[in-house]
Sequence to fold (166 residues):
Amino acid sequence: MLRYPIAHLRSTLLWLIAAGCTGELAFAQAGKAQLPDGPGRAVTQRICGNCHGPGIFTKRRLDREGWAEVVDDMIRRGAKGEDEDFVLVMDYLVQNFSKTPAVRRINVNSAEAAELAEVLGLAEDQAVALVEHRRAKGNFKTIDDLKKVPGINTQAVEERKDRIDF
Ligand code: HEC
Fold:
């Protein structure tokens, strides 16, 4: 039954372990700068870092279907993990490297002007006007309160009202 000499088997095993470790180490180092924080980061780092660095996928922008194809392909190539690990990896990839990034929400009563400008697509002076209005008159309670601030791009506010918290 034993076709392979034990010594050979052992060195193969050692090689695999060593290759796995250095791969992970290199990935951990390279990955620090490149993989954004968030749920699933650690497991993605562990599973997807054994064979290549993160650079191979962090520049891609795919939808969920696209990432599912990549992950299936990687499993065929030998990526190992539990099913629930891959669920986390999938969510992490979709969340961070998606064609349509997750909608960012904003609390209009606590956000800084720069953040308001970015998330609501407002010019900077309009965002500043919101903050000043809030300071002078108190918290906004409705979308209409926002639209009443002089100079505000009401259309931008209307378009992004789903992102607004009070
Ligand atoms: C067992 C080794 C292994 C693991 C683990 C692995 N990959 Fe790969 N991956 C490969 C190989 C081999 C290639 C082909 C490399 C090439 O084309 O130069 C590749 C290529 C890729 C590519 C480029 C594919 C293309 O079509 O050009 C992406 C994207 C990718 N991997 C993402 C991932 C993700 C995400 C994970 C974690 C789920 C992962 N890989 C885990 C082996 C692996």
Summary: The two ends are 71 Å apart (CA to CA). Confidence is low (pLDDT under 50) at residues 12-33. The pocket of heme C is lined by residues 47-48, 50-52, 56-57, 60, 70-71, 74, 77-79, 89, 93 (CB under 6 Å). Residues 112 and 131 are 7 Å apart (CA to CA).
